[in-house]
Specification:
245 residues, 11 strands, single chain, 5 helices, alpha/beta
Length: 245
C-alpha cells in the first residue's frame, strides 16, 4: 500500500468535489447504529484508520471522540480543515501504533487498498492493538468477490467544483484468479487554460465474505456481515462488524 495514487497526492485538491462529505452520511449513520447497538449510549472513542479527507468522520464528531489516521499528508490536511480539533496522525493501517486504546476502530473504503490476506491480518492486528477489551471493529469494503462483476464504467460530473470536472472510472478484474481488481480514473478538467485530462490507476483488494469473516475470527474477533443498501454502480452495502473477544 502506498500513497502514490494521484488522487491522494497531486490531485488531492479534487477530493472534496470528487467524493463530497454529504455522500458519506448514510455510511456514517450505519456506523453510528452499529456502535450504539454494541457499545450502548455515550461518547465513545473511535479510531478511524484510512480516514482520507475526513468525510465519514465529519458526520460522527458530534457523537463520538474521533481520532484519524491516514497515509497521505495531503488527505490529512484536507481532513484537518474539515474537522478542526480532531487528532490526526500519519500512518499505514497495517503497521501504525499510537499506543492508545479506543472503544472502536473503523475503516471505510480505504480497507479496499488491502491487497492480500497478510495485509488483512496485519490491519486486524493494528485494530486489536488499539482496542479496549470488548471493543468493536467496523469495516466497509466497496466490493465482495461473490457480488463483483466487471468490467463496469461509472461517470459523474463535479459541476460545483472550481473549475468543474468530469470523472470516468473503468473498473475491471484483469486476473480473476488473484485477489485484486483495477480501477482507472480519468479526470476531465475545464480550467482557464482549456481542457485537460488526468489519469490515475488504483489497485484494490477483492475477497469473498468468507475470507473477511475467517481472518477476523482468527484475529480475535467475533465477526458478522451486515447487509446494507448499496449505491449506484454496484458498490457498497457491506459492513463487517467484529467484537474483540
Amino acid at each position: 500500500m502506498t500513497s502514490s495514487h494521484r488522487l491522494y497526492t497531486d490531485l488531492a485538491h479534487l477530493w472534496p468535489a470528487f467524493s463530497p462529505p454529504e455522500d458519506y452520511a448514510d455510511d456514517a449513520d450505519h456506523w453510528r447504529q452499529a456502535l450504539r447497538q454494541r457499545l450502548g449510549p455515550g461518547r465513545h472513542s473511535v479510531l478511524e484508520l484510512g480516514s482520507g479527507g475526513g468525510h465519514t468522520l465529519s458526520h460522527l464528531t458530534s457523537d463520538f471522540e474521533m481520532t484519524a489516521v491516514d497515509l497521505s499528508p495531503q488527505m490529512l490536511s484536507l481532513s484537518r480543515d474539515l474537522n478542526p480539533g480532531i487528532p490526526h496522525h500519519q500512518g499505514d493501517m497495517r503497521t501504525v501504533r499510537l499506543h492508545q486504546t479506543f472503544d472502536a476502530v473503523a475503516i471505510h473504503d480505504a480497507v479496499c487498498y488491502l491487497l492480500t490476506e497478510q495485509d488483512l491480518r496485519n490491519t486486524f492486528a493494528t485494530a486489536r492493538a488499539h482496542l479496549k477489551p470488548g471493543g468493536v471493529l467496523l469495516l466497509t469494503p466497496d466490493y465482495l468477490q461473490e457480488s463483483f462483476s466487471g468490467p463496469r464504467v461509472l461517470h459523474w460530473v463535479c459541476d460545483r467544483a472550481t473549475p468543474p470536472f468530469t470523472v470516468i472510472e473503468y473498473c475491471f478484474d484483469p486476473d480473476p484468479t488473484d485477489t485484486t481488481i483495477e480501477s482507472i480514473f480519468f479526470f476531465i478538467i475545464h480550467d482557464k487554460d482549456g481542457l485537460k485530462i488526468e489519469e490515475d490507476r488504483h489497485t484494490s483488494g477483492l475477497f469473498p465474505s468468507t475470507t473477511w469473516l475467517r481472518l477476523m475470527q482468527e484475529s480475535g474477533f467475533d465477526a458478522e456481515l451486515v447487509s446494507l443498501p448499496g449505491f449506484e454502480g454496484g458498490y457498497g452495502g457491506h459492513l463487517f462488524v467484529g467484537s474483540l473477544r
